[in-house]
Amino acid sequence: MMYVLFSALAVGLLVLDQWLKLWITANLPLGESMPFLPRLVELHTVHNYGAAWSSFSGQRWLLLGVTACIIAAVVWVLARRIVRHPLGVAACCLILSGGVGNMIDRFRLGYVVDMFHLEFWRSYPVFNVADICVVIGAFMGAVYYMWLYEKYDMKPKKGETDGDSDAPTE
User: pLDDT at residue 167 above 90?
Assistant: First the structure.
């Protein structure tokens, strides 16, 4: 049930990402801005031909290939149920949603449509819903891996048991 719930959330976020990108493209010309959350966030249309901070700009096929590999790895981890804790599953679903959202743009348009600009941090890059999903998913995944994976999902190595039953008694 948990997998279905988080998958539905991921699909919903993917739909929101794609809808917002279509709305922005139709209603706000490239390079134009409009208020969203005054003094915090404005909508500003940008075409990003690279990855974060426009790194790898113009490397469309490389970025599509890397994103496809990451998506395949996350799907494999979920399908094999390597990650079973809710935080880890949610992290994977968010990463999938964001990765697919940006991959659709990159494949369809050759660039990613970005629209959120932090007014209080002028030098921070413009981003989109898919980017938010990837960043939050990666953060949640790091928390999961550092503090929960070993306790809840890590399989014991051959010859190990959960208790200290093999430990010598004194």
Answer: no
Tokens 């279905």: give the residue.
4
Q: What are the residues whose beta carbons fall under 8 Å from the beta carbon of 115, sequence distance 6 or more?
A: 20, 21, 24, 28, 43, 44, 45, 46, 126, 127, 128
| Helix axes 2-27 and 129-147, enclosed angle (nearest 10) | 150
Indicate the domain borders of the chain. Answer: 2-152
Strand pairing partners for 41?
Answer: 37, 118
Q: Which one of 114, 162, 164, 166 is the catalytic residue? A: 114
Q: Catalytic annotation on 105?
A: no
Mutual orientation of helices 86-109 and 2-27 as an angle, nearest 10°? 30
Which entry of 131, 162, 164, 166 is annotated as an active-site residue? 131
Q: Which of 108, 124, 105 is nearest to 48 (CA)?
A: 105
pLDDT of 80-95, one tens digit each? 999 999 999 999 999 9
Asked whether the beta carbons of 112 and 128 are under 8 A apart, the reply is: yes
